[in-house]
Automatic annotation (TrEMBL):
Entry-linked Pfam families: polyprenyl_synt
Domain of life: Bacteria
Coiled-coil residue windows: none
Required co-factors: Mg(2+)
Name this polypeptide is given: Polyprenyl synthetase
Similarity section: Belongs to the FPP/GGPP synthase family.
Organism encoding this protein: Effusibacillus lacus
Source organism phylogeny: Bacteria, Bacillati, Bacillota, Bacilli, Bacillales
InterPro entries for this protein: Isoprenoid_synthase_dom_sf, Polyprenyl_synt
One BP term from GO: isoprenoid biosynthetic process
Keywords: Magnesium, Metal-binding, Transferase
Length: 320
């Protein structure tokens, strides 16, 4: 499916459903704006969105578009809802697009978006009721576990020390479950247990790979609050491990800045340079690539190194 078709079908669903169920021009305006951002279904490259990736899985599995599209749209809306919740928690890019939108309305926006995702599944035609029930159950399970992962993630801030193993356990819940959700929403339509199990595992690896990549990038951005919250994501975990072993004073600097936000802000460039120079930044990206490779080894072992598998790999990597 080409980009124009993805965007046209997405807009049609939103116009028909949102205008009927949620008579709020402001909600529709914000929803379209969020979905038009880079990496989203209405953005410049919709095939690079989770929706586009899920549709590509449907194509690989020979799922017809009438069934695959509503599931893929549901995935896109669930991920958007999760992004909004995450931004509210971390105070990133907040409030939503609107300078005067209070936190209460931002919360309602996230809730509405999540409910729209379930509406997309429920209104799907030509799917047996037991299959639809299985998909709803998987979506619900994934969201519950991802929410638990987000809850645990909020406790992972310096000076609390988190091991790499603990961090990976958290993102396996927080993000791996979103990856599972994205793959299973369409894979369950194949009604084949072996394929469902494959996509459950591959999806988890892909979700973790995406989170690792984001954590490395977000620690380097002033527009994100990972550094100012001293979130114990892998770049900081590996940097502290290096400092404890070498005794180079970085861990002592972190203790000081953890008690003074102004001092933390003043030293942010030095902290980021240390993360890069000690190899923690590269380590995180390499681990992301390893999880991506683990996922595609599973996929290609089952489906072969076909053109569709190659296209799926390129889509996940953001290549065109």
């Amino acid at each position: 499916m080409n980009s124009q078709m993805i965007q046209a079908m997405t807009r049609d669903f939103l116009l028909q459903t949102v205008q009927r169920e949620i008579p709020s021009p402001q909600f529709m305006e914000i929803l379209l704006a969020k979905l038009s951002e880079e990496g989203k279904a209405l953005g410049p490259q919709p095939q690079s969105s989770w929706m586009g990736f899920t549709l590509a899985i449907g194509d690989l599995l020979d799922i017809n578009m009438e069934q695959a599209f509503p599931m893929s749209l549901a995935v896109e809306l669930i991920v958007l809802s999760g992004d909004v919740y995450d931004d509210m928690i971390d105070k990133d890019n907040f409030p939503l697009q609107e300078p005067n939108l209070p936190v209460e309305k931002s919360l309602l926006f996230a809730n509405w978006t999540l409910m729209l995702a379930f509406r997309s599944v429920l209104t799907t035609r030509n799917i047996q009721s037991d299959v639809k029930q299985a998909i709803m159950t998987e979506l619900n399970r994934a969201i519950l576990q991802a929410s638990w992962g987000q809850w645990l993630d909020e406790d992972c801030c310096f000076p609390k020390i988190i091991t790499e193993e603990k961090y990976l356990d958290v993102i396996r819940l927080k993000s791996g479950k979103f990856g599972e959700l994205a793959c299973l929403a369409v894979a369950l339509l194949a009604c084949d247990e072996q394929q469902v199990n494959l996509w459950r595992n591959a999806g988890c690896y892909l979700g973790m790979a995406e989170q690792l990549k984001n954590d490395a990038a977000d620690f380097m951005r002033d527009s994100k609050n990972d550094l100012m919250k001293l979130k114990m994501t892998l770049p900081l975990i590996k940097s502290l491990e290096n400092s404890y072993e070498s005794g180079d004073g970085f861990s002592e600097l972190m203790q000081r800045v953890s008690q003074d936000q102004n001092l933390l802000w003043a030293n942010r460039v030095q902290i980021r340079e240390y993360i890069i120079n000690c190899g923690a930044f590269d380590y995180t990206f390499i681990l992301s690539r390893l999880y991506t490779e683990k996922a595609f080894q599973l996929i290609e072992a089952f489906y072969g190194r076909s053109e569709k598998c190659l296209q799926l790999r390129k889509l996940f990597a953001g290549e065109r």
